[in-house]
Write a structure and sequence with these properties.
Elements: E1 2-6, H1 13-24, E2 28-32, E3 37-40, E4 47-50, E5 53-54, E6 60-63, H2 70-82, E7 86-87, H3 91-98, H4 100-109, E8 117-118, H5 126-132, E9 138-142, E10 151-154, H6 157-169, E11 174-178, E12 186-193, E13 196-204, E14 219-222, H7 227-240, E15 244-252, E16 255-262, H8 268-274, H9 278-289
Parallel strand pairs: 1-2, 1-6, 6-7
Antiparallel strand pairs: 3-4, 4-5, 8-11, 9-10, 9-11, 12-13, 12-15, 13-14, 15-16
Length: 301
Amino acid sequence: MRIAILSRNRKLYSTRRLIEAAEERGHEVHVLDPLHCYMNINAKEPSIHMRGKELPEFDAIIPRIGASITFYGTAVLRQFEMMGVYPVNESVAISRSRDKLRSLQLLSRKGIGLPVTGFASKPADIPDLIDMVGGSPLVIKLLEGTQGIGVVLAETRKAAESVIEAFMGLNAHFMVQEYIKESGGADIRCFVLGDKVVAAMKRQAKPGEFRSNLHRGGSATLVKLSSAERATAVKAAKTMGLNVAGVDILRSNHGPLVMEVNSSPGLEGIESATEKDVAGQIISFIEKNAKSHKTRTKGKG
């Protein structure tokens, strides 16, 4: 098979591992920087070009689109879908998961456990917004933030009011969530592939920090999931429409709660913690499922 990987840097661990796994199985791999791709959009023969040349035909494409280029990256992926290339994750599903508020609303509609979340735009709504999520302490998250950036733990009501007022003053979009104290600064990253969890790790925040992101100094260890956690992770990924997803779960007194569904989950932490060949499993999934024009959305949305 001829496989394309949409990635801005072929030296990144995740991209490098996918290249290795595909080539080990005899596939031809091309790494394409989505920002270097440009599109010929027409009714008869849509195409994608790079550096003055039309790209060859591909059997499948693996999108590794960073949050900062979601709009252009998904446009390029959508063009590949229109040309009949099988996407591991579809453009519509990626866009859906990147919109934090929309993704939580979709998960809520499916009855999936979530931290109580509030969203408002007027300063007059702040007192009720804080009460809505159970008061302080509470977590305030910028909707555009990634890797723990723009996430604030407000330990007192006064601190929460001050941060919320500041974000509103900057016209920033944010949400407030209940603080799950019993999680102890830890979350579970479930790596979902197709209809099952193929690997899972527990991420623990460093002392004095409540964010468990590995980029913020958190540690990762192997973890055993309950059947409820596995079912929740798979249902969350399916709700987004993702074949490959990193579903982040908090362990609470009232069951697993989904924090986020990541459409481009990193491979380094999960492979190191679990010693599993996750990249190889992704390539195996492509081998079993890749068919021309096999997209549920058909480039729509």
